[in-house]
Amino acid sequence: MTVSTSRGPAPGSIAAQYQPSEFLSRVRNFSIIESTLREGEQFANAFFDTAKKIEIAKALDEFGVEYLELTSPAASEQSRIDCTEIAKLGLKAKILTHTRCHMDDARIAVETGVDGLDVVIGTSSLLREFSHGKDMDYITKQATEVITFIKSKGLEVRFSTEDSFRSDLVDLLSIYKAVDKLGVNRVGIADTVGCATPTQVYELVRTLRGVVSCDIECHFHNDTGCAIANAHAALEAGATHIDTSVLGIGERNGISPLGGFVARMYATDREYVMSKYKLHMLRDIENLIADAVEVQVPFNNYITGYCAFTHKAGIHAKAILNNPSTYEILKPEDFGMTRYVSIGHRLTGWNAVKNRVQQLGLTLTDDQVKQVTAKIKALADIRPRNIDAVDQLLREFHAEVHGSNNDDSQVPKKRMANGDTKEADAAVNGQ
Ligand SMILES: CC(=O)SCCNC(=O)CCNC(=O)[C@H](O)C(C)(C)COP(=O)(O)OP(=O)(O)OC[C@H]1O[C@@H](n2cnc3c(N)ncnc32)[C@H](O)[C@@H]1OP(=O)(O)O
Ligand SMILES: O=C(O)CCC(=O)C(=O)O
Ligand SMILES: [Zn+2]
């Protein structure tokens, strides 16, 4: 039997054969535009006071995101002040603010001290009719005036079409071509309603890549669950910048979440992602946002969810204990997380129980471990048992077999969010 320890796609696997054009692909060379302080502020529960915005900005900057996008200073007087305050912090990340394609907004924004403006206007027929009421000629004229003005101030400028995937392709390419000629730093594609599929994203970005020479930013809403996959497809097709927010918070059910996007890109190129971002900070950053907007981190959250590194079924547990790569594409330790093998349930198997027996310092033959596993399964058929109950059962069984009470071994435990106890890291790593 050949045992591979590699975490990349297995040689000969479908994943290994699928090589998107390296010429176009930016999966190994992208930037994150972190929009928790813009799109995230559009989340139903969000309210960040100045101090909280600064705390969030500093945390994301330390994590390593390349850009922070802030709410338009035209939104309110406090939004304008906050923009100015964050622009003054001297962070490594570039500070952007997000404005309508309107001179009034641009004039206010350029005075805040930000590094650049992300300008947007709707181009789908729905938004043209029911949002701003302007046609493509008007939009092009307005965009030209706004972009020229921002550039005259020496600031970075991105021009984006809202609702790109329900816009006419000819309209889109014409306006992108026009603004590229004006010298924008980036054009943006926005899946404002979350309707796009990865294939549609790939095709649109690839087409656009052939039309403009500037960078391409992409923004994906998650209404139909494609936000992360769409971000990856966009990079494969040559997009350079991806918008994220912590926990994905944003308008409706939000956009590509920072953690999930990072997980996806880590699985594509672990070294690249680890060289850019302080992955151990992710959990604290998510907790910071979850507290601020009064939500729980979902149990199945990417990387940091309660069960993201919990292995349960016996078949999985055996293989994981032999080699974690069997059922993990992400190394928990790279994110400051801990692997857990759960055994107090009816799906457990003797290999996982044997591992626990060894951790407890008990000596049982394989046949004896199989017998005690059958007992655990019978009990767990009534209800699952926590690790304390399983340990007690194992010790009692051991005492019965050996005719003595051997309960002096101590395995460190930590308390979990659900009140259960889990073994400490070293006890479950199985390596
Ligand atoms: C898809 C997105 O998430 S885009 C970003 C959304 N962000 C925001 O909306 C920021 C917060 N917004 C606000 O504080 C306010 O909406 C403001 C200050 C921007 C505008 O407020 P108001 O002037 O009261 O207008 P209101 O919000 O009712 O309507 C939007 C106005 O912007 C115009 N508009 C909408 N989109 C754009 C655009 N991309 N570019 C230029 N004008 C636009 C509309 O025509 C409408 O103008 P009207 O007053 O002449 O009808
Ligand atoms: O500016 C952009 O590109 C995106 C704006 C936005 O939030 C959206 O269209 O959903
Ligand atoms: Zn959005």
From TrEMBL:
Pathway this chain belongs to: Amino-acid biosynthesis; L-lysine biosynthesis via AAA pathway; L-alpha-aminoadipate from 2-oxoglutarate: step 1/5
EC number: 2.3.3.14
SUPFAM superfamilies associated with the record: Aldolase
Reaction(s) catalysed (UniProt annotation): acetyl-CoA + 2-oxoglutarate + H2O = (2R)-homocitrate + CoA + H(+)
Names of required cofactors: Mn(2+); Mg(2+)
Keywords noted in UniProt: Acyltransferase, Amino-acid biosynthesis, Lysine biosynthesis, Magnesium, Manganese, Metal-binding, Transferase
Enzyme class: transferase
Signal peptide: none
Highest rank taxon of the organism: Eukaryota
Region span, Disordered: 401-431
GO molecular function terms attached to this record: homocitrate synthase activity; metal ion binding
GO biological process, one term: lysine biosynthetic process via aminoadipic acid
Listed Gene3D superfamilies: 1.10.238.260, Aldolase class I
One GO CC term on file: mitochondrion
Residue span, Pyruvate carboxyltransferase domain: 30-283
Family: Belongs to the alpha-IPM synthase/homocitrate synthase family. Homocitrate synthase LYS20/LYS21 subfamily.
NCBIfam families, alphabetized: LysS_fung_arch
Protein name: homocitrate synthase
Gene source species: Dimargaris verticillata
Lineage, top ranks: Eukaryota, Fungi, Fungi incertae sedis, Zoopagomycota, Kickxellomycotina
